[in-house]
Amino acid sequence: MPSKTLRIPTPDGLADAFAAFPDGGGRHPGVLMYPDGFGVRSVLREMARELAGHGYYVLVPNVFYRHGPAPVIELPEYIGEDDRAAVFARLMPLIEAHTVDRVLRDADACLGFLSAQPEVDGGPVAVTGYCIGGLLATRTAAARPRQVAALAAFHAPVGADGPDALAGITARVHFGHAEGDMTPDALRELDRALDAAQVEYSSEVYPGTVHGFTMADTDAFDPAGLRLHWERLLSLLGRALAGG
Question: What angle, 0 to 180 degrees and rounded to 10, lies between the N-to-C axes of helices 100-116 and 132-143?
Answer without folding.
Answer: 70
